């Protein structure tokens, strides 16, 4: 905790009191984003499971095709609406009001989904989509504003912020999944809403720490300075010949096209892979296997939560006197989290056998990201840093290899079977390979958009990039919805082989385009 720094951060004097070398306001945004991701991924983990579960299990007994179709539409629109939310914040609302409005709409959306009626489901999903559009683009814009005169610290700031994203996803999937599958689906949806509400309140009552940042609409949302060159200053590619810039747009378009293939397969995590975990995986563990899971799950849960709680206590030391109400809501949210975690772990250790929740496997993605992101960052900064197309190709191939593991693991499942009991190891290995693929492709894509596009076009091009991601999500739902048709005609192994072959072929193709793409980039590396 210090105020000594060569940088001057925007906002109030308190915002220049540092935690981990960064302004205390960053951690207000860290926890706000953490609870938003908790609610989003907690709800996403439950949606398909709830819709496809039998009526006697509290579900709606939808067909897998219909459930995955709704899932795909929802995740697609989540990536479409930030364009609108960014424009409205830019011209009318301001970033802080947009974040608060988005959080409020998402709170209402989760509250609606706590009711067991079709109209409440559709209303809830609509509110979540609209709320995400206001929230997602504008909370990062506040970070940009805070670090306006501290460009050299911004990479570290976004790294910390990204950890909040993954911490929220991790806890949301684990705890909403546990509550939903153990006590009732709508309790899980409601729990996601509680934390979104508390996150909104802690942001609202501490927002004055940012001073004028995000308070008044600016003429232009400055996203381009979020990614800098190695000297900490924004690098401009605006002054290039028109023909060169046209070629760079072509590169962005090609990368976006291959991005669709990646997300169409990767987002099976919330769809067909969740169904595979629920109906085709042996999740009941006994004896030594049960004890191994209990210990591993305890460490996976308690260690990250303890670290984040420590950060929370350090923030309290700085901000509690000035923003007591905000800190109270934040402290309450953590108290609830710890109570749920203790009850969950106590119940698991008191049982003779343990049933792994089907939603639990989703936490592996966040865990592996947190574990391997520093390694990938080091590789990209070393002499072994490959071209963008090679990174994309590696990401697609690793994704395909993850599905090849599932194809192999499901080879023993009879044609057309609705249930089976294969080992959990196949899902764990698949999530590991998928996450390594994500780290090779997803951050790289955003980085190259910022490098290849002139500053005046960056906001629009990021919006178009997310549309490509949204299209991949919709395609994921449509393709995942074919699981019953393909497994009936062929086999479960054939279903996963499709997601093996297509990404690997796409990866080989984009690697083969490396010489052409390097020429079209005109010096951008």
What key phrases describe this protein's structure?
525 residues; mainly alpha; two-stranded antiparallel sheet; 4 strands; 72% helix; 2% strand; globular
Given the C-alpha coordinates, what overall shape results?
Answer: globular
Q: Name the helicity range.
A: over 70%
Q: Tell me the strand order in the biggest sheet.
A: 1-2
Helical/strand content category = mainly alpha
Would you list the SSEs in sequence order as H and E? Answer: EEHHHHHHHHHEHHEHHHHHHH
Oligomerization category of the chains in this entry: single chain
**Count of runs of 4 or more consecutive helical residues:** 18
Rounded to the nearest angstrom, the radius of gyration is: 23 Å
What proportion of the residues form beta strands (DSSP E)? under 5%
Low-confidence stretches: 218-237
User: Quick one: how many beta strands?
Assistant: 4
Cα end-to-end separation: 38 Å
State mean pLDDT (0 to 100 scale).
Answer: 85
| Main beta-sheet annotation | 2 strands, antiparallel
């Amino acid at each position: 905790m210090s105020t000594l720094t060569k940088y001057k951060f925007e906002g109030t004097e308190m915002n220049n009191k540092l935690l981990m070398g960064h302004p205390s306001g960053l951690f207000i945004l860290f926890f706000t984003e953490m609870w938003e991701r908790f609610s989003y991924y907690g709800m996403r983990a439950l949606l398909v499971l709830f819709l496809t579960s039998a009526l006697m299990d509290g579900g709606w007994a939808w067909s897998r095709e219909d459930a995955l179709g709704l899932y795909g539409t929802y995740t697609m629109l989540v990536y479409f609406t930030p364009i609108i939310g960014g424009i409205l914040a830019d011209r009318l609302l301001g970033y802080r009001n947009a974040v608060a409005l988005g959080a409020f709409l998402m709170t209402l959306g989760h509250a609606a989904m706590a009711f067991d009626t079709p109209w409440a489901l559709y209303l809830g999903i609509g509110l979540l989509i609209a709320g995400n559009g206001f929230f997602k683009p504008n909370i990062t814009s506040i970070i940009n504003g805070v670090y306006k005169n501290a460009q050299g610290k911004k990479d570290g700031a976004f790294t910390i912020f990204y950890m909040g994203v993954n911490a929220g996803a991790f806890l949301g999937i684990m705890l909403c999944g546990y509550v939903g599958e153990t006590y009732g689906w709508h309790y899980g949806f409601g729990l996601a809403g509680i934390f979104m509400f508390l996150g909104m309140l802690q942001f609202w009552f501490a927002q004055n720490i940012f001073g004028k940042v995000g308070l008044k609409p600016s003429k232009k949302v400055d996203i381009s300075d979020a990614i800098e060159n190695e000297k900490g200053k924004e690098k401009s590619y605006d002054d290039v010949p028109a023909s060169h810039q046209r070629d760079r747009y072509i590169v962005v378009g090609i990368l976006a096209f291959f991005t669709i293939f990646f997300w169409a397969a990767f987002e099976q995590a919330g769809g067909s892979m969740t169904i595979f975990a629920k109906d085709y995986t042996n999740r009941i563990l006994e004896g030594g296997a049960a004890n191994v899971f209990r210990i591993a799950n305890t460490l996976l849960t308690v260690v990250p939560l303890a670290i984040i709680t420590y950060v929370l206590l350090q923030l309290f030391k700085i901000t509690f006197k000035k923003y007591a109400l905000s800190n109270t809501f934040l402290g309450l949210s953590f108290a609830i989290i710890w109570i749920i975690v203790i009850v969950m772990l106590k119940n698991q250790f008191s049982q003779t056998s343990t049933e792994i929740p089907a939603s639990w496997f989703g936490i592996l993605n966040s865990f592996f990201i947190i574990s391997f992101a520093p390694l990938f960052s080091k590789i990209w900064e070393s002499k072994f840093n490959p071209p963008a197309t090679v990174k994309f190709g590696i990401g697609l191939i690793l994704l395909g290899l993850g599905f090849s593991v599932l194809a192999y693991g499901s080879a023993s499942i009879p044609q057309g079977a609705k249930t089976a009991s294969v080992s959990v190891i196949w899902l764990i290995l698949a999530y590991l390979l998928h996450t390594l693929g994500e780290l090779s492709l997803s951050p790289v894509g955003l980085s190259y958009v910022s490098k290849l596009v002139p500053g005046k076009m960056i906001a629009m091009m990021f919006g178009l990039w997310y549309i490509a991601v949204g299209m991949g999500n919709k395609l994921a739902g449509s393709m995942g919805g074919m699981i019953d048709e393909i497994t009936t005609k062929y086999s479960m192994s054939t279903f996963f082989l499709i997601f093996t072959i297509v990404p690997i072929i796409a990866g080989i193709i984009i690697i083969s385009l490396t010489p052409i793409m390097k020429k079209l980039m005109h010096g951008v590396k």
